[in-house]
Structure prediction request, 429 residues.
Amino acid sequence: MMRKNIISSCFPFAFSLAMILFASCASDNDEACYFKMETEQTQVNVPAAGISKSKLAKVIIRSNKDWNIQLENPEDAQWIHLFANEGSADGIFRFWVDKNTEFTSRSARLIFTVDGQKQDVPYTIDQAADIPAVTIANAENGYKVLATGGQLKVPVSHNIEWTTLLKDEMNQQPTWIKIDSCGTDSIYLSLEKNTDDTRSAILTCTGVGEYASVTSSTIITQANAGIYLNDRFDWMQEGKEDYYYNYPEQGIAVWTEEELSHGWTTLATSNPCLYGGLGYLKLGKTNVAGDVLSPKLSTIEGTTDVEVTFKSIGYVSKGGAKDDGVMRVMIEGPGTIVGQDLVDMTVNEKTYKAATFDITVYPNSSKNENGEDYNPWIQPGATFTFHIKGATKETQLLFVGGVAWNSGLKGKGQGKNRLLLDDVKVKAI
Prediction:
């Protein structure tokens, strides 16, 4: 190598300039021989990631003779690289260290020779072992994809063999997303078009064999298909857990501020017959119809056509008597209900065009007509759908239980029309 003094301004380790003197030199003249390294660190600990060539470690040499540095074990040159390993008089030697890809640590010792004489200098470079890992890039932030679906590439870094799997939030295999293939450093996923609400899946990479405990997970979320309202009323926690016929609900007058903040209200200014239960709303009391007005569809931009779905079941007494089951739905603000037979209905002296839905599903009475495990909400007849043409951000849904608003008019059957309402969803079509 060329014998010259080399100057550098960077060294990632905090070497102080305490001088260590090594004075075992041979000399052919009267000048005293000396050799110093300006560092008190004679054992350098290097992380598994190594030291890059762009950030060379350096040590300043002070000497009045020719000096040379070699690796005690020549095979260590495969991972430690010395730069300017010889010089004359004062100078600098530098080194960089490759990444350790093994799961065991390694160490190398440097041999110093001054004026042809080997020095007793205990200078070693120790590098930490690599750690078994498989890591999904950006795992903590997750991946968000459009409702249109398509293919998603997820980068993965690893130093072990690994496998991958998908699970939904119920720990089941999702049907709308699948793993197409796994490359050396990527996972390729296919997603179907989303026509409903936002949905998510958990992608997990796991080490194989003895590294099975090494994992990395991320959440993949697919956007909804234009959901403007999706209220399951999980926030409504009034009343008590009881049989439906035991009136566990509580009127709007005692709802909490948090419950009221969700924007559901009634048009009745006196004797409101809107009640909250455990995760649902109830319309009506005895012979008086109840109503509920939804929040505005505030996320709609411009004018659009939407599909509305809701669930409703009727009321049954302890002895098994069923209330009338009539739900009227109207539009407050822009928009027109289409595809339904409409009738005029007056609410607060304003006439609306109302669609009528017959409620045919009822809970069990005390007789358990449908069995102990019967859930009326999941019955096919409990879900209803209709379309609105020309909805905007000012559009609201008005639900009324019965054929006359806030009235004691008798209808068919019992002349009572108490209804339970849940799972109201409005989405673009």
